[in-house]
Write a structure and sequence with these properties.
320 residues; alpha/beta; TIM Barrel; eight-stranded parallel sheet; 13 helices; 8 strands; 10% strand; globular
Length: 320
């Protein structure tokens, strides 16, 4: 006779209420992830090469998908203004280089970022819900979100309660995401899973489905504060969850790998996995982002290398 774990029993109790039965049915259809298959496919796709013309297109797209990010205790208004300038004009000497998608900051820096980005297409994203731990009451998390929205954030990046999820309290995690989504109003909500703390691919897939069912506009790998952050196999698991959720519900959800993506070569590998899994409709900043602080410089250097045949000097671009 199969045994039922304490976490499974708690999850069953959480999902027994009528308003959660649909969620329970959805999570019940989440099958186990083939670890070897996922890792082999991700490694195979990462090895693909592309032609020069396609590479320039991919580099341009990757730049437009960047959420330029600074989430440090030593952040200052001056640093935010400098990054806002870089977000608007990544290479001031080359007007053909596009702006990035967003500048992601702590809530207390939203007003500074918004003023510095005024008149541009760059969005202001803010972390919230007691980032990065998520260990606070729901009231505190919602007030965090409301203040970020009131300060002018266009997008909210929230963190799930990993402790609650790993304890099997799926309904609690679901309800928190629903409440945060309501607090964000019309603004985009990115739900951070912190995949390094979820421990298994099965948990990553289950958390992805839960977040999407609760109303996430994007699902995001990591806070960047826990290692390993984004990885190709984890991203593939999440993209496949998005693909299957879209097939079941007709609702398109975006994806944001964040943390540890530092080179243009890595970014192109992620775009290859994205294209092969979700197709051309997801090859847009509206449905895919890179959360990064150092990736942009390498993308700019690779663009210049492709156009001129040689790399720029190490001091050509600003250090973030």
């Amino acid at each position: 006779m199969a045994t039922t774990t304490p976490a499974r029993r708690r999850a069953d109790r959480d999902l027994s209420a009528p308003r959660h039965q649909a969620l329970g049915s959805l999570l019940g259809r989440v099958w186990a992830v083939d670890q070897v298959g996922v890792e082999d496919r991700a490694a195979s796709l990462a090895k693909r090469s592309i032609k020069r013309e396609s590479k320039l297109w991919a580099l341009d797209l990757a730049i437009r998908m960047v959420d330029l990010t600074t989430l440090e205790g030593k952040d200052t208004p001056g640093k935010i203004r400098a990054l806002a300038g870089k977000a608007r004009r990544p290479d001031p000497t080359d007007p053909t280089i596009p702006s990035v998608a967003a500048l992601c900051v702590y809530p207390n820096m939203i007003a500074t970022a918004r003023k510095a980005l005024e008149g541009s297409s760059v969005k202001v994203a803010s972390v919230a819900t007691y980032f990065p731990s998520g260990q606070a009451s729901l009231a505190v998390k919602l007030e965090d979100v409301r203040q970020a929205v009131a300060a002018g954030a266009d997008e909210i990046d929230m963190v799930i309660d990993r402790g609650a999820f790993l304890s099997g309290h799926y309904a609690q995690v679901f309800d928190e995401i629903v409440a945060v989504k309501e607090a964000t109003g019309d603004h985009h909500l990115k739900v951070i899973l912190e995949t390094a703390e979820l421990e298994t691919y099965d948990n990553v897939r289950r958390a992805s489905v839960l977040a999407m069912a609760a109303g996430a506009d994007f699902i995001k790998t990591s806070t960047g504060k826990v290692q390993p952050a984004a990885t190709l196999p984890v991203t593939l698991v999440m993209l496949e969850a998005i693909r299957d959720f879209y097939a079941q519900t007709g609702r398109a959800v975006g994806m944001k790998p964040a943390g540890g993506i530092r080179t243009a070569k890595e970014a192109i590998s992620y775009l290859t996995v994205l294209y092969e899994t979700l197709g051309p409709d997801w090859m847009t900043p509206d449905r895919f982002r890179f959360g990064a602080s150092t990736l942009l410089n390498d993308l700019l250097m690779q663009v210049r290398k492709e156009r001129t045949g040689h790399y720029s000097g190490g001091d050509y671009f600003t250090l973030d």
